[in-house]
Structures are given as C-alpha cells and as structure tokens.
Amino acid sequence: MKTKDFTTTILVDATAQEVFNAINNVRGWWSENIEGDTDKLNSEFVYHYQDVHRARMRIIEIVPDEKMVWHVLDNFFKFTKDESEWKDTRIIFEISGKNGKTQLTFTHEGLVPEYECFNVCHDAWTHYVQDSLKDLIVTGKGSPTPKDAEETQSPDQHVSAEQTGTKSICHRLLIEAPAEKVYAALTTQGGLAGWWTPETTAKAETGSVSRFAFGPTYFKEMKIEELKPYSRVKWLCLHAYEEWIGTTLTFELEPHARGSILLFHHDGWAAYTPEFASCSYDWALFFRSLKSYCETGKGFPYPEFNK
Prior knowledge:
Blueprint: E1 6-12, H1 16-24, H2 26-29, E2 34-36, E3 44-49, E4 53-63, E5 67-77, E6 90-98, E7 101-109, H3 118-139, H4 161-164, E8 167-175, H5 179-187, H6 189-195, E9 200-201, E10 209-213, E11 219-228, E12 232-239, E13 248-256, E14 259-269, H7 274-296
Antiparallel strand pairs: 1-7, 2-3, 3-4, 4-5, 5-6, 6-7, 8-14, 9-10, 10-11, 11-12, 12-13, 13-14
C-alpha cells in the first residue's frame, strides 16, 4: 500500500489566473526570506527560516493557470535527526474549476508520515496554504514569514534575574503545533481570548497596549515591547496587582520535530512572595490552556482554567 503524501485543498471565488499569480508570489504567502526567481521554468530559489530551516527549490514544471511544480534540491532542518528530510521531494500546485469556483490542490509529494518532521510540516503547510495563500488570493494580502531582521539587543534583554537581584517565574513546555500557530495564539486578540481570558483587547503591534479583564473589577494591561514573528514576544506590565507592575513577560518559541518548545519567563519580581507563588501556579494552568488551544482549537481560558 502506497504511503499517502501530504495534500490539502482550497476552493476560492477567483479566476484560475488569479490563483496562479498568487502561487507565484511566494514571498506574499510563504516567506519574505526567499532569494531567486519564483515564477520562471528551471529557475532556482532559496528559502530560509532563521537558522532552523533552509531549502533550495527548482521550478521543474509550469502550465499557466493550471499547474506549478517545485523540486526540492536540498534541505536542512535543525530539529530533526535526519537533517535532509524533504530532499528530492516535489511540491505540486494544481488548479481546476469546481462548482463555478477555482480549486487549488496542494501536494507535497514525498512528505509522508514516516518523516520525523511530518506533523509539524503538516500543520505549517496547512497554515500557509489554507490561511496565508487563500487570504492572498481572496484579499490580496497573505501572512508570510516576515523578512529576518538583524538581531538587536535592548539594554535589559538577556539580563538574568541573578544579575539584577530580582526573581523570575519560568515554564517550559512542548506544544504539538507549529510556531506559526503558537505565535498567533500569543499575539492576536482571538488567540489570546482563546486561552487566557475572553475579555481581551489586543493588537499585534509593537508599542500597543493590550487589556485583559478577569471579571468585572480586575484587569491587566501589557505594553507590547517586542514582536519577533514565530520566535519571541515580550510584554511590560503596566497595570495589575502591585507586584506585577514593571515586570516583563517573555515568550520564546523554538521549532521542534513535534511542534514547538515554549520557554516563558516572567521577570522582575522583587521577592518570593505568596503572590509570586500563586502566579507561578496560575501560569502553569494557563499554559495547559494554551497547549490545548493550539493543539485542539479549544482552550480553557478564565474562568475555566483551574477546573
């Protein structure tokens, strides 16, 4: 019995030409970190995501408004034992008409369940095709991985609690979902409402202030200090219990063969107090909610988080 390759399909109210043009705009739906031509037969292009994933593709077939095929010439994953998974596989886009609309069938031929990266690649391709590419076709704007920025370090970044004399809450957990999905859960209003509190007002914009209400009389306000897509989110607490104010909350994501590793640290506590202990326990419960939300689509936000 032949092992099934990964495939996913979208149906859009657009012409075949519009779908074909969107596929060719790879920087508009997959990643801005691409070098080379992505729309010419026999051309090669290189994709990279930080130091985690890089791939070199050759376009081996183009049938305008009908089909596009990439051949993966080389590939590297940082998080798999076999660093060359994907190599010599093919990525196929097939366009057809269906019920007065246009259907796109995406197949990664050779991406099979036996691959160590299969689960995370399955979810990542699903995100980029079902969400980003579809949005690019329908609305003209996708959500590709942004261009890598040069690493800049603020004066307080990576300064340990030991150096400052303060205390930190730390948690580390595996979430069986790609970093793209976890990042959205940490930065968008809908995502945060799905695992922390439904009473969320938030924008994924550096410098903005997010508000999180927990019942009719208590709320927290966080200034978004840093957003590094798919790898780092940092907040500064402006309003909450007195011991929270001025603390920083950092979420760091690292790709894993089964999804993503989340490392969270809540820094700047003055002392080990009862509130510190309660907060650490509550964060553990909320991260259970975040994990469930990312893996199943259903979290346990306030007030369900401790049930």
